[in-house]
Amino acid sequence: MNGSIPNIVIGRLPIYLRELQRMAEEGRHITSSLELGERLGISAAQIRKDLSQFGEFGKQGTGYSIEFLMDNICKILKVDRVWDMVVVGAGDIGSAIARYQGFTNRGFRVGYIFDIDPKIIGTKVGEFIIQDFNSLVEILRKNHIKIGMIAVPGWAAQEVADRLVEGGVSAILNYAPINLNVPSNVRLQYIDPVIHLQRMTYYL
Amino acid sequence: MNGSIPNIVIGRLPIYLRELQRMAEEGRHITSSLELGERLGISAAQIRKDLSQFGEFGKQGTGYSIEFLMDNICKILKVDRVWDMVVVGAGDIGSAIARYQGFTNRGFRVGYIFDIDPKIIGTKVGEFIIQDFNSLVEILRKNHIKIGMIAVPGWAAQEVADRLVEGGVSAILNYAPINLNVPSNVRLQYIDPVIHLQRMTYYL
């Protein structure tokens, strides 16, 4: 199945899932592509088409069971389990990520946080003890961790990416404001607030 | 011009700009669509096509002047000036944003940070004194600030968005893990690490 579903469709599933979880928290049980579309600013037809790529999740006229649809999207995205992650960089951003409450119930958990600075290695960030960056590869391999987040300055980010890959990581979320090179079998996503801001100023 | 350039083209310009700035920092002066494409994983033809929508930035065979191209993209994206922004929410994420060094030289500056918690209003985050959320609208209007970042819990985010809009903000970057409703003349972008992570787990 992996090869046949367009990336852009996969990219929308987490948006659907987030809104469904919000509805579930509101105590709702049933929704429709129309309602979901209105809440997300996406056409109902697009949502039906995206979901139909994975099977039959609703009956004509009765809508979708929110719980059933959530369960299925979680399975498709493989977040019906909890993925351990590492954070590299224990500065402001890395510390905020390590303490972030928003991973809970969405398929992820921070397992370890690393830094290269001997002055902070061994100290605590939230409930985590900051680990030595030099033990990154070993800890990744021992714990079979597949996901890493980079929260170091731009100049250090490529080396961190290389070490993550060396340790077996195959999905990287990069907060450093720099484009990284990774092998083609490694997935890479970026979070750079300036990119998002510059996408808006054009219209101001 | 605004109506005629597709959003997706505008969305790629900040990526080009970031890479050009990186090349400039490396001391480089000339590049080509081929090199830029290789560094970014985008085809040279796509880059040439995107840039041609805004004019003639390079000569056949001699490539692009990095500085000239940067200047022009900055003008197009209106980041040839510095935009003041507000951050609402002085928790981990809001504090990390306020102290973030990555805005400098990229067109943005945090002007104020706000919170609703009387225990932290008046205390400092980096160089900023945390302002009372109840003075948000007034401060936005007085300073003609057009950009706001939301770093509050999900349940509080819609009210923050409403107040930002009331104060005249027309571009919002939302870090809260929730979809927001804003008037159609207000631009909205999201930063939610879980969305990015879930876009990768499908492929693991």
Detailed description of the structure:
- The structure is a homodimer of 204-residue chains.
- Chain A is of the alpha/beta class and 204 residues long.
- Helix content of chain A is 42%, strand content 19%.
- Chain A has eight helices and eleven strands.
- In chain A, helix 1 (7-25) runs antiparallel to helix 4 (66-76) and helix 2 (33-40) packs across helix 3.
- The mean pLDDT of chain A is 93.
- Chains A and B meet through helix 1, helix 5, strand 11 and helix 8 of A and helix 1, helix 5, strand 11 and helix 8 of B.
Task: Note the topology.
The structure is a homodimer of 204-residue chains.
Chain A: H1 7-25, E1 30-31, H2 33-40, H3 44-52, E2 58-59, E3 63-65, H4 66-76, E4 83-88, H5 92-99, E5 108-115, E6 124-125, E7 128-129, E8 131-132, H6 136-143, E9 147-150, H7 154-166, E10 171-174, E11 187-190, H8 193-201
Parallel strand pairs in A: 4-5, 4-9, 5-8, 9-10, 10-11
Antiparallel strand pairs in A: 1-3, 2-3, 6-7
Number of strands of chain A: 11
The total tally of domains of chain A equals 2
Order of strands in the sheet with most strands of chain A:
8-5-4-9-10-11
Number of helices of chain A: 8
Query: Per CATH, what is the topology of the largest domain in chain A?
Result: Rossmann fold
Shape of chain A: elongated
Structural class category of chain A: alpha/beta
**What oligomeric state do these chains adopt?**
homodimer
- Identify the most extensive interface between protein chains: A-B, 57 and 57 residues
**CATH architecture identity of the largest domain in chain A:** 3-Layer(aba) Sandwich
Unreliable spans of chain A: none
Proportion of strand residues of chain A: 15-25%
Termini separation of chain A (Å)? 42 Å
Mean pLDDT of chain A: 93
User: From the alpha-carbon coordinates, what is the Rg of chain A to the nearest angstrom?
Assistant: 19 Å
- Main pleated-sheet profile of chain A: 6 strands, parallel
Helix-strand pattern of chain A: HEHHEEHEHEEEEHEHEEH
User: Helix proportion of residues of chain A, in percent?
Assistant: 40-55%
CATH class placement of the largest domain in chain A: Alpha Beta
